[in-house]
Amino acid sequence: MQAFKRLFLSRKTILVTIVLILLTVVAGFIIPQKFSTPQREFQKWQDAHSQWIPWIERLGFDHIYTTPWFALLLSVFLMTLSFSAYEQIKISRLKTYGKVMPSGEKGIPVSESRQEIVKKARKKGYIKLYEDLDVIRLVKYPWGYWGNVLFHIGMIITIASAIIIFLTERRGTVNIIERRTHFPESAWLAEEHGLLVDKLVLPDSLTLETISPEFWETDEIKQLTTALEFTDETGQINNYTLHINKTLHYKGIEIYQGNSFGNAFFIEFSDSEGRINNEILLIDNPKKRNKASYSNFNFFWMPYLLKVKYFADAEQKMMDSNNPLLVMRLMQREKIAAELQLKTGEHGRLGPYDVTLVHVARWGNVICVKNKGMPGIFLGFFIIISGVSLTYFMPPREIYIKSSDGSLFLSFRSGRFKSLYREEFEKIYKSKEGRRSA
Amino acid sequence: MNNPLFIDRAIHWLAVIIYVAASIVNTYGLIFRKERSEQTAYYIIVTGLFVHGIAIVYRWTIAGHGPYMVRYEVLSSNAWVALSTFLVFSRFFPKIRSASIFMFPAVFLLIALGLFFNPEVTKLPPSLKSIWLVLHVVFYKIAFGTILIAFALSVFYILRNRTKIKWSERFPDNETLDIYAYRFAGFGFTFWSIGMLAGSIWAYQSWGRFWGWDPVETWSLITWISFGIYLHLRRFFEWKDEKAALLFIFCFILSLISLFFIPILESSIHSEYFK
Prior knowledge:
Largest sheet of chain B: none
Helix content of chain B: over 70%
Largest interface: A-B, 50 and 50 residues
Order of helices and strands of chain B: HHHHHHHH
Order of helices and strands of chain A: HHHHHEHEEHEEEEEEEEEEEEEEEHEEH
Largest sheet of chain A: 7 strands, antiparallel
Shape of chain B: flat
Shape of chain A: elongated
Strand content of chain B: under 5%
Distance between the termini of chain A: 45 Å
Oligomer: heterodimer
Distance between the termini of chain B: 28 Å
Number of helices of chain B: 8
């Protein structure tokens, strides 16, 4: 047990663990991660580095933060922090309340009484923490002794909370078209859940009533507001408004307004044999009134790639128009097979199809999250900051008044940055009209 | 003349000219041991800071948001906060004043660099309307200021150790340079931590995710851990002197990559509006 404790308390173990975490984060930056890289980009990277892929997949380097070895690394780090925090609590208690003597140094002889020295030191912000017949210890900023303890405890709380979130968080995002409903059993557009929980299921049906974007005169988005409706199993309807940075709390789930939005184009394709296919094309909103937004679609029934672009306004005069212009191209082996421009209600010929733009509606992105442990993250971070602030802004400075052979000696010590505070000590000493001896 | 962007740039250029004047007078004072020139340089630089402050407030008024959207305003405000941080800290720690020989030119070079970028006003997207964003940005700027001071002190340490430049005698002794570099690295670490916390609260408020492994977030964490390693080595392995100074310079380079290069090179929520 002692050897185990020694291993985890070793400064080298702590340093090696921190360096390994650093290298892991660097690797996570260099190697594209599955969860954060678009599929096409991820595939491209894999194709370009095919010789490394077996190793990357075997070691989980394409999803580093969810690998067992990263969890193990964090656990080791957590253990070293816990042992270290326990030891530091003991050291800090001793420094705050115990009789700690500076090593070896006899100090400078002074002629004043103990009470006079204490009084002058107190004026400089020193607090008497210990006194017996032999020694008096005065400390400025004694709470600085607890800086490291707080830093370590904060790290423990933050990492533990992050692990809880990692294991229990449920998250789903969905693009919903105006006046359409996402039912509890409906599939998410993207979904993530921790190892200990199942995927997120909404308690009630969610209907997106309207989505209203507001734009600056420069065409940049000013605000995105969504009117939502939850319908429970009894048919009771609850209405809510959501916008960016305004979260909705509904039956234990946090609901956020996503940044993405755009137009959904309801299209009817009719081929020469009279077969009809209805498709809904969800495309991101254009960034400017005179710039188009692009997207590609592959349909199982269509032997072409459908490339689509649209302008927010057919006349390119405004961003929040109800009259967008849709341009469709059929692509066959990189060549344009046909092209068609449509506004709402219009129809035309696109290669072998008769196409009608039946209806246009807005769509918006909604993010639903259920997790535990978030307050722990922020509390932990706050404690870390308190710890480092105490450590670097308030390093404790100690003055010792020692009695030896009937004389009094004054000495000074600082855990950190001693040379910075030597002048402060010398001022206290000079104010006693003494003389430095050592 | 009535073009607000022209007025904005003109005030910025005026601040640059004042800063250049202050840098020349200060360098002369430091190298030739003219205390009066040094003192005059501080009066000039405070005037420059005031003019520069007017430029930032004017820009804030015409843009309708703080200086955190385009590189022009980001670099300008970074320079202002770095100089203010230096002037405030130099009142409490007078021995760092010799770092002004590096800080003053660094400040006008940052603004001058910003002036070469497009000054076009960009509107604030809704996700950036949050007090946590303001705190996030402000604390990173203060962290940058303290890190810049520590960097100057580390460079001075190496300079004096390796060269026989006469005027390097004006710097504090090596032990003081070393210990101040350590302390300011600690301040930088503290402010960087606060910036990260404010950023994670902002991200949670906006997207329900406190950490998304976005490239800028990842690099910020890499830099934070690197500073942590530097502080750990100094505290527990008694690293000091030149090897500590060299390690700090490496950490400083990482911080530059995090703050200025990654948002330009990588696609990220942080870079979406910087490009």
